[in-house]
Structure formats: C-alpha cells, structure tokens
Amino acid sequence: MGRLDEVSLEELYELKEEIDQGKPRERVLAAIGRKQGDQLDTLAERHGVVEKTIRNWLDRFEEEPIEQAPYDAPRPGGPAKIEGEERQQLFEQLQQPPTELGYDQQAWSAKLLLHHVKEEYDVEYHENYAYELLREAGLSLRTARPQHHEADPEEKAEFQETVEKNGPN
C-alpha cells in the first residue's frame, strides 16, 4: 500500500487552503505533489530538503489523521523560568557592561550570566541555555585571542604601527 492511498487529492487541497504558510504547508504541498505523481527527488529539490525528509513527511499522512499530519507534535520542555517584564529587564541589563552592575568583568560570559541570573532572579539555567539567552538578547560572545608565550609585545606594537602607516592596499 502506498503512503497516500488513504488520502484523496481533494482532502489535501482542502487542507492546503486551511494552512497559510510554514512547514505544515510545505508538507501538504509535498503530499499533493506526490499524489500527482512527482518523484521523491523532484519533491526534495522543490522543497529544499533531502529525500528522507520527504519520505518522513509522507509517512505522517499514513500514520496520523489528515488534520494532524502536517503539524509537529508538541515538544517537551517547561515554561520559561524568567518571563515577561523580568525577561525584558534581564535583556536590558545584558545591554550594559557587567561593570555597570558591579562585576569586575568587561564583557558578559556564559558563566557570568548564569551567576547574575542566579543572584538577581534566583533561577538556575544550564550553561548551554546561557548562550541562547545571550543570543536572544542580541549579544555574541567574544573571547580573547590567545597569545603565543614567546610573543614580543614590542614587535607586535611595531607591526601594528607599520600596518596603520601603510593602510589597506
């Protein structure tokens, strides 16, 4: 039995009209294309995915009711620990250098952010989520470039001076 034997083309068109955009619409369009005879490689190219993804999308129409097939199942995860005004306040704090908040570091690091959130909001996050919070606040991490242990600071300064004098080519 084929993946879409139990689904009519008319049902797919009706479903397509109910879905405005996004991945669910792409899944319905792929099902319509397959029902009209398009090959998996053609569908994959059209939708910018690999053939395995197309097969997975089509399997949904066999395994789930047609109304649910285009949509992802709810994913696990709890509610945000810091929400609303507090979250906005945190993001505003992150726009300031940590020194403004009494820390002796010039830039935010994941560890410093975790410490700040624990002290200020009594919330603990995993270090990976700290990077997500920084990204959501519009910040990126910058790390110091390592210096070779034998690097001569005077030679470096002389080189910088030479580069500035010569300018870009």
Largest sheet: none
Distance N to C terminus:
67 Å
The shape, in one word, is elongated
How many extended strands? Answer: 0
Residue-averaged pLDDT: 86
> What is the radius of gyration computed over CA atoms, rounded to a whole number of angstroms?
27 Å
Poorly predicted regions are none
Give a verbal description of the structure.
It contains eight helices and no strands. Helix content is 54%, strand content 0%. The protein has helices spanning 9-18, 22-35, 40-47, 51-63, 84-94, 110-121, 127-136, 153-166. The radius of gyration is 27 Å and the shape is elongated. The longest helix has 14 residues, at 22-35. Helix 2 (22-35) runs antiparallel to helix 3 and helix 2 crosses helix 4 (51-63). By secondary structure, the protein is mainly α.
Question: Helices and strands in order, then pairings?
Answer:
Layout: H1 9-18, H2 22-35, H3 40-47, H4 51-63, H5 84-94, H6 110-121, H7 127-136, H8 153-166
Helix pairs in contact: 1-2, 2-3, 2-4, 3-4, 6-7
